[in-house]
Amino acid sequence: MSGGLLIWMPVLLAAVWAAHWGAEHLAEPLKKLRQQWGFSVAAGGVFVGLAAASPEIGINTTSALRGVGDIGLGALLGSNVLAIPLMVLTAYAATRKKRIEGHDDHTKQRQAHFLEIDRRAVTVQALPYWGIIALFALLTLPAPWRGLQPLDGWLLLLGYLAYVTQALLRGRSDGEEVEWSSKEKRLAAAGVASLAIGAYFTVFSTEKIVGAFGLSKIIGGLFITAPVAALPEIFATWYVARSGQITSGVTSVIGDHAVTMTLAFIPLTIVGMTINDFQLFWVTLSFVALMPALYAAFIWCGRKGFRLWQVLTLPMVYVLYLVLLVVWVQPFGSGG
User: Fold this and answer.
1) Is residue 78 part of a domain?
2) I want to staple 148 with a disulfide (CB 3.0 to 4.6 A). Which of 18, 80, 226, 273 is the partner?
3) pLDDT digit string (tens) for 103-125?
4) Which GO terms describe its cellular component (predicted)?
5) Is pTM, for the whole model, over 0.85?
6) What CATH number corresponds to the domain at position 129?
């Protein structure tokens, strides 16, 4: 085991650094793209989310090709339970600095421990994403359709296209003239490539570490691969929020989830993924649905954002999920 860890831990650290560098160089290009095409700040999360979802796409493609779909299934569902509380907490921490560009009332909000979010994040992002979860549940929970089949992949693709179309078109205005230097274009392309490559090798090396510890595949996906796969999105959320694009930074988690619950599952639909632990699956999927429901309710009822107690409530719900698994589902054990 120690030999495997010595090999893959440096790979993991290098991959995380690559994802960090890529995320850092995406904040300004994202802002320019939104301005150039006239998209709302809420829709801006689609761009960040699509780039940040590369770990999940990578792990599912790898899982499908290797015949270890449980790792991909666990990574996707685990990341979708964990990511919303993690990204909201990250954005809150990132915006505690004294000044935020474009937010003249930030000092007052900082003193009030408030994280301001455009309310359109609920209607443009959260509610349509909840519709994607409902579609996924319909395709996987009923006994006659349980599991993932090739037809499900096409239906999930249509669901994602509908989500992206409404997110980009709603609230769109006339675009602005934006100048792009050659250096900016190269850095933007390098940022996307670095984020994707770093994300893939983050997941790949974590998969090797899971094997070294002898954990079951779905548990390794839920609690090792999923948190590590969230690292690129943490970096993206941090830098985008600190650049003044707070709503885009926070809503990127929904854009990421929309990808993971649709496009990222397509490799598993192609190979006909079966669900081996149905209780673990439906309990986890229930929390996948609960997180965006709380996210939307907190933004809407919190008068365009999150109060500190709401920011802290989301991680506590994740802790509740872990406790429920330990005392009721009891999925832990060794396995291949």
Assistant:
1) yes
2) 273
3) 766 777 788 888 888 888 888 88
4) membrane
5) no
6) 1.20.1420.30
